[in-house]
Amino acid sequence: MKLLRLVRILTIGLRFGLEEFFLGHERVRPLRWLVRVTLFWRPLSEPRGVRLRRALEALGPIFVKFGQMLSTRRDLVPLDIADELAQLQDRVPPFPSDQAIATLEAAYKKPLAEVFAEFDVTPVASASVAQVHFARLHDGTSIAVKVLRPGIAPVIAHDVSLLYAAAGLVEKLFADGRRLRPREVVAEFEKHLGDELDLMREAANCSQLRRNFRDSPLLLVPEVYWDYCGRDVMVMDRMDGIPVSQIERLRESGVDIPKLAATGVEIFFTQVFRDGFFHADMHPGNILVRPGSEQYIALDFGIMGTLTEVDKQYLARNFLAFFRRDYKGVALAHLESGWVPADTRIDELEAAVRAVCEPVFDRPLKDISFGRVLLQLFQASRRFNVEIQPQLVLLQKTLLNIEGLGRQLDPDLDLWKTAKPFLERWMNEQVGWRALVRNLQAEAPKWAALLPQLPRLAHHALNENRLAQLEAGLTLLLRQQHTRNRWLAVLAAVLASLVFVLVWLGQIAL
């Protein structure tokens, strides 16, 4: 099956002329003549961006998601390709509406007319894993109905198996393969893809994010209608807004674009450092903006990232040290977290980080590429055997999405000045007097229950200590008595022997 899928990938690539991207590299340019004399060469009428988009659509959901990520990286991808790949964000070809209706009726076990008062058979959005229809409940509530694509699970399973095979090759063929831990990265990706195939999980993610940002002026999250949700269907509020990519419409509605860009950065850091629960698929197709305000509207909650307290502390420490140009702090954080070997020289790691990061400070976002910075950090990390952390892969992807969105909204956005006050405030809350007060408040109920019991517990502990001492004393006395008993037995035996000898000698004398 893997071989058939691989053949299909190669066939689709050749059909849409994707070898052009490979042959454009200087190292393989001499192979062009060989391709031109084979049967695979043919005139290509469509632009390269269109051909790449159509190929990714034909290959399936994993490749569509790859294209979505590329569409946000206009600093790394040519504009003609980025513009075309942007269509993958919400304009993937839909599946037939009769299949969607069949899925819904199977889930509800009743005709659709009994479930919804109205149902628009034309999907309003279609993505790689599901598509969305507008509908209305019998009480008049406007809703959005998300329906899973039929038969999508086997396709994803096949693609993931190919990714595992590719990860194995990376480990074997490249010197840095094991350090990159590609199998663990694929496993993390597979886990989140599996979550996307269960719309009940997505509904729970949506509900959690809504609770985290309840009454927030930063982010609006739709309400979930649990009675209508299942593994293959999710029902939530219909959200009306302007797509974040339509900047002119946003300006016409009165949105402050620079403020909107800064709000996006604040939302990201709030999710990551306050909640440890963040939207990990923040491409423009999943984000709307309320007209006339700088409030975002989140959509599509299939991929959410989570961080432990240890991860958050590590990241905050690194970010803050980075913003303060404290490169020794960055190096120490890597060493203390175990990301580099214990014998790593801090001064050398500090110098390597400084060489990559120092040139990007005091520049607007339009002059900085996180993609290139990450690539340079990756190249520098080889020397120090830095291990890639799979649990942070989603965070890295989200950070790149945020950069692409910020670059699109406001190229002059100063990411450092926007993020630094937030991180400093968060760190103060974690280690300052506020953290002490908060921790005392959190522990207060436990102390309230424990304090009345302290005399009894102390008395019990003392009694246990006395019993332990008494037991130890008795054990010592018994051991001493046992020793004395042994000596008495020896003495008795000697005396008995002596008496026996005396009696025997007396008998001889008689």
Write the layout of secondary structure elements.
Layout: H1 2-15, H2 19-23, H3 32-36, H4 48-59, H5 61-71, H6 79-85, H7 97-108, H8 112-115, E1 118-119, E2 125-126, E3 130-136, E4 142-148, H9 152-173, H10 177-180, H11 182-196, H12 199-212, E5 219-220, E6 233-237, E7 242-243, H13 247-252, H14 257-275, E8 277-279, E9 287-289, E10 296-298, E11 304-306, H15 309-323, H16 327-336, H17 346-357, H18 370-381, H19 393-409, H20 415-431, H21 433-450, H22 454-509
Parallel strand pairs: 5-10
Antiparallel strand pairs: 1-3, 2-3, 3-4, 4-6, 7-9, 8-11, 9-10
Helix pairs in contact: 4-5, 4-6, 5-6, 9-11, 14-19, 14-20, 15-16, 15-20, 16-17, 17-18, 20-21
Care to describe what's here?
The protein is α+β, with helices and mostly antiparallel strands. Among the domains are: 2-89, no CATH class; 246-431, no CATH class; 456-509. The chain contains 22 helices and eleven strands. Strands 1, 2, 3, 4 and 6 form a five-stranded antiparallel beta sheet that branches. A four-stranded mixed beta sheet has the order 5-10-9-7. The protein is globular, with a radius of gyration of 34 Å.
Summarize the structure in short.
The chain is of the alpha+beta class. It is 60% helix and 8% strand.
Strand content: 5-15%
The gyration radius over C-alpha positions equals 34 Å
Low-pLDDT regions = none
The class by helix and strand makeup works out as alpha+beta
Number of strands: 11
Ends apart, CA distance between termini:
113 Å
**What is the number of helices?**
22
